[in-house]
From TrEMBL:
PANTHER family: DFG10 PROTEIN, POLYPRENOL REDUCTASE
UniProt superkingdom: Eukaryota
Name of the protein in question: Polyprenal reductase
Sequence intervals crossing the membrane: 12-37, 87-107, 164-183
Organism name: Cylindrodendrum hubeiense
Main localization category: endoplasmic reticulum
Length: 198
């Protein structure tokens, strides 16, 4: 019980930038662990979209033994909750929406951005200059807009599905990225300085 309270206290002491960094560190760690798995198990978890083998190719080898059973279980699990390829569009809707939302928060002196800047002050102030923040923000907004445009007007949705877990993780990734591009440059001091000159 005491260790769970310490863990909660540690989590509450993190700044918004540290929360983003923790998410990306955990995501990277999971990917590295998955890459260390045997290829059949790895493919059952990671292959989706164009990389997903056809049903005839998704049979485990007879000699795989226990590994074949694990592969079969993972294949069945990933078959549950498949979403259509067209749902990739949601990633770019979230990306563009988040970029617009945080820009609106910034220019309207929004309470959510002020609170996050206050929490970020615990780290001792910004580690990026505002010019760097604007550049990262603009580039992320342009990337999301380009991919949204391509998804709507250029590319045709494929027929291969993706696992709902991949879809959910993609949404979390783009939401976290939208915060990450500006949070390192935020602090109440820098917000006050910029807002004073507006």
């Amino acid at each position: 019980m005491e260790s769970s309270n310490e863990l909660i206290q540690l989590a509450l002491s993190l700044t918004p930038a540290q929360w983003c960094q923790t998410f990306f560190l955990l995501a990277t760690s999971v990917i590295i662990v998955i890459q260390a798995l045997p290829s059949q198990v790895r493919s059952a978890v990671m292959n989706y979209g164009a990389r997903r083998p056809q049903d005839a190719e998704r049979k485990p080898e007879k000699s795989a033994g226990g590994l074949g059973a694990l592969w079969g279980l993972l294949t069945k699990l990933t078959d549950i909750g498949q979403v259509p390829h067209s749902w990739f569009l949601h990633f770019y809707i979230v990306s563009v929406s988040c970029s617009a939302f945080w820009a609106w928060q910034y220019f309207q002196r929004g309470s959510l951005m002020r609170e996050m800047a206050k929490l970020q002050d615990r780290a001792g102030g910004p580690s990026m200059e505002l010019g760097q923040v604007y550049a990262a923000w603009l580039l992320m907004a342009l990337q999301g807009s380009r991919r949204l445009y391509e998804s709507l007007y250029v590319s045709k949705p494929g027929s291969s599905p993706m696992w709902v877990i991949h879809w959910a993780l993609g949404l979390v990734y783009y939401t976290t990225m939208a915060v990450s591009v500006w949070v390192e440059g935020s602090s109440m001091h820098s917000c006050r300085t910029v807002w004073t000159f507006r």
